[in-house]
């Protein structure tokens, strides 16, 4: 059984269609305000679209086309939404919090508590059963929130940046936990973290301006981005343009020498992608075959791991601090970005 959605929300310029397999996790990527949380709100029943339909297994979540006004309430959908904040009931113990969902669904107290204990054990939080939420750390509380969501046995789990509020020590453990509990489960996860997407999702979609602009296997989307956002998320440089016989002419007029991939036809829209680590920086034009040399104006320099990242005319280059000091680089300075043709990938947009 699959999940399918086709929804339009005119007031928010939102128009998205999406299908999930029976045991598939999809990462939703996109800039702030793109419509990611709107997507989860529509699926969960917290937002009512103007038109469209959604089906989860044999259940119609809503049908709002051609005079049909069917709209299933949130509690009857078989979905569970896990937000950035755990939102646990402060007056209940951890065990009671996790048992709340099964109890609300009609399970008797003994059965609900048994289910709650099972899921607390699954998320390695059984020792917190008798505590109140106020006695938990952020990572502990989020693990309990995951157990509470899974205790309802949802057909579709919705995760809205579940690790955004966690510190750098709690996030890796929760990521490993999610990888285990999401196995063989249908889920949608909103994230801004490349590692989350790569570790947890089978497929990724990019939403921009309320539309899906890119989708495919997660690694393919991040390794061969076709949108500025995906390229930025993956830390790659991306130049859209027109494919030529020897590479690509960018929309900004740069003539890029590279080797177009199989299937790239001269004259069609394409993108050139290359890593900031593939860029060398010089004070004067460097030529040779086959390489590309572009004059750019530095807009910013910032630490990036053990490197210095140079931002210039929408492109980025990573060089060592020693090289930056030797070149005496400063904002506003004109330099040359040099990239070997073999380091640039060109493929259809």
C-alpha Rg, in Å?
A: 24 Å
CATH topology of the largest domain: Rossmann fold
Helix count equals 9
Largest sheet: 6 strands, mixed
Under CATH, the homologous superfamily of the largest domain reads P-loop containing nucleotide triphosphate hydrolases
Structural class call reads: alpha+beta
Strand order of the largest sheet: 7-8-9-3-10-11
Binned strand content: 25-35%
Distance between the termini: 32 Å
Share of helical residues: 10-25%
Kindly report the average pLDDT value.
90
| Structural domains: how many | 2
Tell me, what is the CATH class of the largest domain? Answer: Alpha Beta
The general outline is: globular
The poorly predicted ranges are none
CATH architecture classification of the largest domain: 3-Layer(aba) Sandwich
What would you note in describing this structure?
The chain has 349 residues and is α+β, with helices and mostly antiparallel strands. It has two domains: 3-228, Rossmann fold (3-Layer(aba) Sandwich), CATH 3.40.50.300; 236-348, OB fold (Dihydrolipoamide Acetyltransferase, E2P). Helices cover 24% and strands 34% of the residues. The protein contains nine helices and 22 strands. It has helices spanning 36-44, 94-104, 109-122, 138-150, 170-181, 194-200, 218-223, 228-233, 321-327; strands spanning 3-9, 14-20, 25-29, 51-56, 59-63, 70-71, 79-82, 156-160, 187-190, 203-208, 211-217, 237-243, 247-250, 255-257, 259-260, 269-274, 279-282, 291-304, 307-312, 315-319, 334-340, 345-348. The strands form four sheets. A six-stranded mixed β-sheet has the order 7-8-9-3-10-11, with helices on both faces. The chain has a six-stranded mixed β-sheet with strand order 14-13-12-16-22-15. Strands 2-1-4-5-6 form a five-stranded antiparallel β-sheet, with helices on one face. The two termini are 32 Å apart. The mean pLDDT is 90.
């Amino acid at each position: 059984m699959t999940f399918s959605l086709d929804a339009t929300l005119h007031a928010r310029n939102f128009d998205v269609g999406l299908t999930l397999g029976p045991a598939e996790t999809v990462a939703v990527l996109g800039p702030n305000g793109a419509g990611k949380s709107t997507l989860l709100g529509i699926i969960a029943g917290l937002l009512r679209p103007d038109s469209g339909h959604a089906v989860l297994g044999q259940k119609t979540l809503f049908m709002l086309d051609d005079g049909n006004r069917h709209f299933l309430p949130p509690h009857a959908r078989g979905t569970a939404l896990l937000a950035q904040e755990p939102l646990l009931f402060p007056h209940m113990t951890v065990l009671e919090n996790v048992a709340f969902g099964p109890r609300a669904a009609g399970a008797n107290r003994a059965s609900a508590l048994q289910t709650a204990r099972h899921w607390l054990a699954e998320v390695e939080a059984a020792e917190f059963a008798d505590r109140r939420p106020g006695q938990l750390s952020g990572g502990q509380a989020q693990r309990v929130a995951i157990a509470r969501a899974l205790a309802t046995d949802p057909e579709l789990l919705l995760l809205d940046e579940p690790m955004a509020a966690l510190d750098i020590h709690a996030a890796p453990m929760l990521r490993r936990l999610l990888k285990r509990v999401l196995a063989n489960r249908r889920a949608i996860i909103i994230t801004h973290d490349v590692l989350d997407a790569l570790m947890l999702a089978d497929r990724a979609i990019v939403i921009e301006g309320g539309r899906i602009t890119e989708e495919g296997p997660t690694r393919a989307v991040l390794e061969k981005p076709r949108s500025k956002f995906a390229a930025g998320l993956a830390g790659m440089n991306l130049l859209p343009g027109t494919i030529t016989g020897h590479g690509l002419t960018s929309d900004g007029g740069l003539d890029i020498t590279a080797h177009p991939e199989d299937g790239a036809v001269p004259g069609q829209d394409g993108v050139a992608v290359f890593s900031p680590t593939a860029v060398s920086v010089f004070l004067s034009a460097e030529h040779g075959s086959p390489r590309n040399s572009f004059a750019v104006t530095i807009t910013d320099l910032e630490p990036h791991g053990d490197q210095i990242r140079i931002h210039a005319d929408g492109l980025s280059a990573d060089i060592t601090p020693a090289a930056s000091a030797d070149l005496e680089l400063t904002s506003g300075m004109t330099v040359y970005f040099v990239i070997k043709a073999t380091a640039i990938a060109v493929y259809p947009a």
